[in-house]
């Protein structure tokens, strides 16, 4: 389906707001892990987000999606609601947010590849050149920040990369036929039969220590990252196309590093502004290249 051009500006803004929301996910998860176990944090955040989404769906009397869309919603739920949060949370138990940002740096390229396979998009050679350059710059920066060592956390991160790209691609496709907030809303509700019992079991098995950081982190990943951020993100993808929206995420690792310095007191090297400049150039090229 061709992308409408009359909403490109608004679509780009919405996708950018989604990226900003997502850039806070890793620092907020690190805060949440101060008081919750990994399984508790992921399950409870999904349940809370589903309660918010379900309340909105009920209040607005939104009808059930067509049966043909449920498979796609299941992919969104498995990739974005469950897979990515769980895998990255497990990784962040032993990885810094700077190292974990490598998965976000590779997400734009992986999402564009998934889009080409799933929805038949064919970005131009200029688009791919800029996308690969941006991904390489982000990858080099984040690997350098982590010392170049591969750890067990990397297995979780690369698996998270694949499942999230699949969820983003399917969510972007569905957002062309239904509002973006309904895509993530129904995906969250669809996961409730699994997340509620897992939350109950995890809370009984893992110790919980309520602090200002842990509660704030939980609330942000539930309401901000898991629901509100995905609403504007899917709307943006529907307006400007999955490949171009995904390239805005090239800025996400750098934003995450800024939040990590401000919120987690992590050290930021002088390589950051150089990488930021390279990434911004790549984003500008991908946004102008015809897809």
UniProtKB/TrEMBL annotation:
Gene Ontology CC terms: membrane
Transmembrane stretches, start-end: 12-33, 39-60, 72-92, 98-119, 126-143, 183-205, 217-236, 270-286
Keyword entries, A-Z: Membrane, Transmembrane, Transmembrane helix
Entries under InterPro entries matching the protein: AA-Vitamin_Transporters, EamA_dom, EmrE-like
Lipid bilayer topology: Multi-pass membrane protein
Compartmental location: Membrane
Homology family: Belongs to the EamA transporter family.
Protein name: Membrane protein
Species this chain originates from: Streptomyces pilosus
């Amino acid at each position: 389906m061709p992308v409408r051009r009359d909403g490109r500006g608004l679509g780009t803004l919405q996708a950018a707001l989604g990226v900003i929301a997502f850039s806070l996910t890793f620092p907020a998860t690190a805060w949440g892990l101060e008081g919750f176990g990994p399984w508790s944090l992921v399950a409870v955040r999904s349940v809370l987000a589903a309660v918010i989404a379900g309340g909105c769906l009920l209040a607005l009397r939104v009808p059930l999606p067509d049966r043909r869309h449920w498979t796609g919603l299941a992919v969104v739920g498995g990739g974005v609601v469950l897979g990515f949060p769980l895998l990255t949370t497990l990784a962040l138990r032993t990885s810094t947010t700077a190292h974990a940002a490598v998965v976000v740096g590779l997400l734009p390229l992986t999402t564009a590849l998934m889009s080409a396979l799933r929805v038949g998009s064919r970005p131009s050679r200029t688009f791919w050149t800029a996308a690969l350059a941006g991904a390489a710059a982000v990858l080099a920066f984040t690997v350098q920040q982590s010392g170049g060592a591969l750890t067990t956390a990397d297995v979780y991160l690369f698996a998270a990369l694949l499942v999230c790209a699949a969820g983003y691609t399917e969510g972007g496709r569905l957002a062309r036929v239904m509002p973006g907030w309904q895509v993530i809303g129904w995906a969250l509700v669809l996961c409730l039969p699994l997340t509620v019992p897992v939350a109950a079991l995890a809370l009984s098995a893992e110790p919980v220590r309520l602090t200002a950081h842990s509660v704030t982190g939980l609330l942000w990943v539930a309401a901000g990252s898991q629901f509100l951020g995905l609403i504007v993100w899917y709307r943006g993808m529907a307006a400007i196309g999955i490949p171009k929206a995904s390239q805005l995420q090239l800025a996400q690792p750098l934003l995450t590093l800024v939040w990590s310095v401000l919120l987690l007191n992590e050290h930021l090297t002088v390589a950051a502004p150089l990488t930021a400049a390279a990434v911004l150039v790549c984003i500008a090229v991908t946004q102008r290249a015809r897809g």
